[in-house]
Design goal:
Shape: elongated
Radius of gyration: 23 Å
Largest sheet: 3 strands, mixed
Low-confidence stretches: 209-214
Structural class: alpha/beta
Mean pLDDT: 81
Order of helices and strands: EHHEEHHHHHHEHEEHH
Number of helices: 11
Number of strands: 6
Distance between the termini: 45 Å
Length: 282
């Protein structure tokens, strides 16, 4: 059964919402946010993945899916996009209902769903747009490189949200929604990078290393004095790396699994020549 974790910042946000009298609107938004997250959970369940926990934050709910890296690029993309798709689906329904009856609530439901879909597609981690962009970047760039790019983009957009939030607060006193979102995203950026880096090492260690099951392969040509920590910056999510080491007049091969095993035993310090010596001693 999934665990539900509520951030203290969410409680602080709800307190101000209630004080300012927007609790009805907030409740409606929260219901559609939950339906949004249900889209992620249902799509992951279709692909035989389980939800580890649900985290409730000021920017919405986040479903943490177990072993999501074990599924293909397409399946991960479907899981990430399914949340905004749910909101677009409901937005279209209420759009047509509002045209028929012009009911205030239908119009409000329509706007809420389209805004939720639009907001969640911003390329900011951990929003769905940020996860989709990270997924695409990981397809073409080394993991650590794509992580740095997404964090820089997330930081820039969070600063824009803070600026817009200040403008919103000046024009519409007591409306702190954008400011809270911007401050939350900015505050969590370092923790987000740490989490992404941790997931990177976890993925590399748990990646299936049976050569015949890994496709495609990335080949690299390096020298024996190349630092191991630099090797880690060149590893990919969906590729198995093979390193051809130029050693005097000969050439030796080191597989990704051998590098991971060495790091687990002796750490990330050292050079490729140390791994070659380790292999020769076996």
């Amino acid at each position: 059964m999934s665990k539900i974790k509520i951030k203290y910042s969410f409680c602080f946000f709800v307190f101000f919402i209630v004080i300012l009298g927007f609790y009805k609107q907030f409740l409606i938004i929260f219901i559609f946010v939950s339906l949004h997250e249900a889209g992620h959970i249902i799509s992951s369940k279709i692909f035989s993945l389980k939800t580890d926990r649900i985290i409730i934050t000021p920017i919405g709910e986040i479903a943490v899916i177990k072993n999501i890296d074990s599924v293909s690029f397409l399946k991960k993309f479907i899981i990430f996009i399914s949340g905004p798709f749910v909101n677009i689906f409901f937005g279209i329904i209420f759009f047509y209902l509002s045209k028929i009856s012009s009911d205030y609530y239908f119009i409000f439901f329509e706007k809420v769903n389209f805004l939720l879909a639009f907001f969640n597609l911003f390329p900011v981690y951990p929003l769905d747009g940020g996860r989709i962009l990270t997924l695409i970047l990981n397809r073409f760039l080394p993991i650590m490189t794509s992580n740095r790019i997404i964090i820089k983009i997330s930081t820039s957009i969070s600063i824009i949200f803070i600026f817009l939030g200040i403008v919103q607060l000046i024009l519409f006193p007591y409306n702190i929604s954008l400011l809270c979102i911007g401050l939350y995203l900015f505050r969590t950026r370092s923790k987000t990078f740490f989490g992404m880096t941790f997931n990177f090492y976890k993925h590399i260690i748990n990646k299936k290393m049976i050569y015949k099951e890994i496709t495609p392969v990335k080949n690299f040509y390096i020298e024996k004095n190349f630092e191991i920590k630099k090797i880690m910056k060149s590893l990919y999510y969906d590729f198995y790396s093979v390193f051809y080491v130029c050693n005097d007049n000969s050439e030796e091969i080191i597989f990704e699994r051998e590098i991971v095993e060495y790091i687990q035993k002796k750490g990330i310090g050292g050079k490729i020549s140390d791994i070659l010596m380790e292999n020769r001693g076996k």
